[in-house]
Design brief:
Helix content is 26%, strand content 29%. The chain is of the alpha+beta class. A four-stranded mixed sheet has the order 1-2-3-4, with no helix packed on it. Strands 5-6-7-8 form a four-stranded antiparallel sheet, with no helix packed on it. The C terminus is likely disordered.
Length: 137
Amino acid sequence: MTAVDFLRPEFAENFPAKMDQGVLYVSIAYRTCGHLCCCGCGQEVITPLSPAQWSFTYDGENVSLAPSVGNWALPCQSHYWIRKGKVQWSRRYSRDEVAENRERDQHRLAHQDRESGGGRFAGMRRHLGAWRWRGRG
């Protein structure tokens, strides 16, 4: 595969088993976006949508994703922005900068978990609690 410089949005509840290069899949139901890495390595990149992770904007035609996508765990370690569908490459981060970013991201997630009242699975627990309550009718 070759690098891409543009991602077109495709809204779907679920992502396909095999993602297409050049498509940014957006699942509102699962609050997640996914795409194949823009460098062309073919790896899937999943970006959860939440105040502490990523957000997206849709202008009726194109999607922007914020903040940048830093694929630190992938062999390519690519780093880019998606703005109005256009891929804008960022500079390569040093190991120390990657570590600092990961630490900051973990701090944001922990803070969001505390504010949302119970951590990563709080929403699921609330849903299951409501289901159990209805089942006892």
